[in-house]
Amino acid sequence: MDARLLLVALCFVSVFSEPEYVIKKRCKDVDAEQCRINNVKVDPCPRSPNLCIIKPEKSYSISVDFTPKFSAKSLKLAMYSDEKKTNLFETAVRAPQDGCGLLTCPLQAEERRNFDVHFQLAKMSPGKFPIKMKLWNEEDESQACCFTFNVKVRK
């Protein structure tokens, strides 16, 4: 009997410690034909897939599985939040940085790839809003992979 309880407890621990898929949306300002975002996981992401509950100054990671329709020698990556809900995504969560530090460059068209990004949100007011992640060809910003997902900030 004790072995069964231990097995059930281990199942719960493994279920709750896995990254969770989130519902992603295409970025309105990026040509969706340039990239296919296969799936996105956020760890931890309570209440997924519709909304991740995020606490400021706590570490999170995002795993992105994507297929670019373009090749690139060098990449840039950035994350922004839209806490004011203006669709402007003005607050940098991760300022633009070298994307080749996360992926091996060069990037080849039609080659399915994965990368992980770690992030923290700065102190901010509680509320629901989207976060935008964009990975683009440094030589041609119109060639990009971009998506948004929703979070709820709690204190």
UniProtKB/TrEMBL annotation:
SUPFAM superfamilies: E set domains (SSF81296). InterPro entries: Ig_E-set, ML_dom. It comes from Iphiclides podalirius (scarce swallowtail). Residues 24-151 form the MD-2-related lipid-recognition domain. Residues 1-17 form the signal peptide. This is MD-2-related lipid-recognition domain-containing protein. It comes from the Eukaryota. Keywords: Signal.
